[in-house]
Amino acid sequence: MEWLEISVAADGETAEAVAEVLSPYAYNGVAVEAGPEGLSSGPVVVRAYLPADDQLPSNRRRVEEALWHLGQIRPIAEPVFRPIAETDWSEAWKEKLTVLHIGEHIVIRPSWREYVPAFGDVVIELDPGQAFGTGLHPTTQVCLMALEGLVSPGAEVLDLGTGSGILAIAAAKLGARCVLAADTDTVAVEAARANAVANHVSERVTVVRGSLAEATGHYDVVVVNILLRVILQMLDDGLSRRLRPGGTLVLAGVLADQEAQVLAAANKDSLRLVRRWESDDWVGLALSSLPA
Q1: Phi, psi at 35, each rounded to 5°
Q2: Are 191 and 165 in contact (CB under 8 A)?
Q3: Among 52, 60, 56, 54, which residue's Cα sits nearest to residue 84?
Q4: For position 38, what pLDDT does the model report?
Q5: Cβ–Cβ < 8 Å for 115, 51
Q6: Bridge pairing between strands 272-279 and 80-84
Q7: Which of 45, 123, 207, 264 could staple 33 via S-S, CB 3.0–4.6 A?
């Protein structure tokens, strides 16, 4: 069988949206080609590979239409289409993904890449897939940097909207005693479970389908990397009550011009801002509950 490679150049902020357009049609997920510093370091190329079967003409048309509509909202380049032979396609997307360093010690390594860890490195093995969270998006990166400074040995962590499970895995590798990871998407739940096994942390990472309602108990660190409207709804539904006294809530998926809305909602629950991260137009917020 032959394959059709689709490549689209976009800025870092738009790359995830392009990936979402391509992923329903892409065999083995979508590859995002960025510099070693992630999406903020320069132009990004998103690639997907479609099987050249009977569905290819209609799938290509749907992809072109969806990308055109996306291009009316955010600037993206015209998609480039290139046929790939069966013997070449599996390596074509793999070669685009490299080892990624985030924060002081976190390293994201595709499974086929060789990497010799330096002292103190926290290495997460993560391959591309349909679940959100490859480590490339600014919101994921600010959460990883937050966890690096907040998770202490023996901590209990809650990850809502876990996607690929990258944040839950990072928390476990940073020393968390147990992590509950939840997502409403069945694809994400399956991906997160598989990634926890691949990273040898499945005994400390429990992945469930659901959201705040399924997250019983209290936690030292709660991380939520979702959309603004979901964050605001969770705060309204009692998200802060999942924190232990003195615990920390990390919120991401928030644009800089939405920050005031989030802080206003958090203040109603007596949460105070203790740290802030910014990457491109995105912010990450660490909010602390009052100690007992």
Answers
A1: -75, 170
A2: yes
A3: 52
A4: 52
A5: no
A6: unpaired
A7: 45
Average pLDDT of every residue of the chain: 86
Q: What whole-number distance in Å separates Cα of residue 135 and Cα of residue 38?
A: 8
What is the residue whose two structure tokens read 């998407």?
A: 185
Max intra-chain CA distance, the chain: 63
Position of tokens 């809530």?
249
Cα distances from 16 to residues 31, 74, 125, 196, 244, in angstroms, run 11, 12, 20, 22, 33
| Dist CA 289 CA 270 (whole Å) | 7
Q: Is 266 helix (H, G, I), strand (E, B) or coil?
A: helix
φ, ψ dihedrals at 66, nearest 5°: -65, -40
187: its two tokens: 């694809």
Amino acid identity at 126: L
The CA distance from 16 to 12, in Å, is 8
Please write the tens of the pLDDT for every residue from 174-203.
999 999 999 998 888 988 999 999 999 999
Task: Sketch out the chain's domains with CATH numbers.
Answer: 3-94 (3.30.70.120), 132-288 (3.40.50.150)
